[in-house]
Amino acid sequence: METFELTTITDEMQSSITHMAQMRNALIAFTKEVLVKDQDYGVVPGVQKPTLLKPGAEKLMNLFGMAVEFECTDKILDIQSKFIAYTYKATARNKDGRIVTQCEGSVNSYEPKYRYLWMEKPKPNQAMQDLMKAEGTGKFRKAGGSWIWVERTENPDLIGLQNTMQKMAQKRAFVGAMLLATNASEFFTQDVEDMGFIDIEGTVVEEPKTVNKAKEVKGTVQQRESATPAEAKAAAPKAEEAKAPEVKAAPAKVSESKAVKAKAVTKPAEVASSIPAPTRDAIEKATSVAALYLIHKNNVALQQDEQFIKLLSTKKAEIKKGIAA
Q1: How confident is the model at residue 12 (pLDDT cuts 50, 70, 90)?
Q2: Which residue of 69, 217, 232, 309 has the fewest CB atoms within a 10 Å radius of its CB?
Q3: 46-56 pLDDT tens trace
């Protein structure tokens, strides 16, 4: 059977090849000489490609002489349910006005970063603290040099965030369009500057040192950062018995079996984990909140796993504590 091979490259094809090679070389040089790490792009441990941020996308647009137009393709403004949603389409054009690519980006008011606020509340009893920490609805936060108890509450002014969310939808569409228009997807992944897709803010942070007195009561479950809601509920009766005024009066001796069980609960390493070792290792090596976000985004099967969320949360608290120090 006779076969035919393409042996001739037309002038038009050669011109395209040359142009694409020039664009790629320009992009490589531009990344090395102009883009600034942690400002225009971020490097996430365990992820092969750097993450393109909005300032970097703007510089790419200027480098290739493009213009971007935005069109709102979908909008929901439900005052009664306080639900807002925007979808914008970004159209990138070259110097001749020809459309190079289009990309859509969306946002809604039920994303955790918009839907919830952290409000200072009266500190509940120890059992309730344990339960709320495990559920991600309460935590201690340092403010003004002292520790306060804060709880996650519904944002009463979601409608006031309408303009903010409109701009966010545009930004997401813009970054996606620049990745496509400049063939930068080979070098960068999507923008993770926005941390609102997951709520790893509302979980474990280090408790005040004054709370450590409760450790004198043997056999109770303390510092239950690794506990699940079910474990926290099971520990509630014991935690109620360990009220602060009665700490010194607590029995000095507890059966060895109970002490061993209580100790075992406080060690995350002894709890069976559903998190793959490579993912756990990537979380431990993460050096930024953006890194944690991307790890969460790339592990769809684990996004409802409590241990996974708690590990992300604990690591985020460590990172923020290090930055503050």
Answers
A1: confident
A2: 69
A3: 667 788 888 98
Name the 3-class secondary structure at 149.
strand
Question: Which of 193, 202, 236, 204 lies closest to 55 in space, CA to CA?
Answer: 193
209/214 Cα distance (integer angstroms): 10
> Taking Cα atoms as reference points, which of 307, 305, 139, 116 lies closest to residue 199?
116
Closest by alpha carbon to 204, among 325, 76, 99, 307? 307
Q: Is the pLDDT of residue 107 over 90?
A: yes
pLDDT tens digits for range 184-217? 888 887 654 443 333 333 333 333 444 444 344 3
Quote the radius of gyration of the chain (alpha carbons, Å): 26
* Structure tokens given for 137: 């609805």
Contact 218, 94 (CB under 8 A): no
Distance CA 254, CA 167 (A): 59
Helix (H) or strand (E) holding 321: helix 306-324
Which SS3 state, helix, strand or coil, does residue 39 take?
A: coil
Name the pLDDT band for 88 (thresholds 50, 70, 90). Answer: very high
CA 57/CA 82 separation, integer angstroms: 32
SS3 80: coil
Single-letter residue type at 183: N
Contact criterion met (CB below 8 Å) for 235 and 227? yes
Using alpha carbons only, what angle is made at residue 178 by residues 172 and 180, rounded to the nearest 5 degrees? 105
Q: What is the distance between the alpha carbons of residues 248 and 31, in angstroms, rounded to a whole number?
A: 62
Q: How far is 275 from 207, CA to CA, in rounded Å?
A: 26
Please give the structure tokens belonging to residue 285.
Answer: 């090596």
Q: Is pLDDT above 50 for 222?
A: no
In order of their start, the domains of the chain are 22-112+159-186 (3.30.390), 122-156+203-324 (no CATH)
Q: Please name the amino acid found at residue 252.
A: A
Cα separation of 316 and 283, whole Å?
9
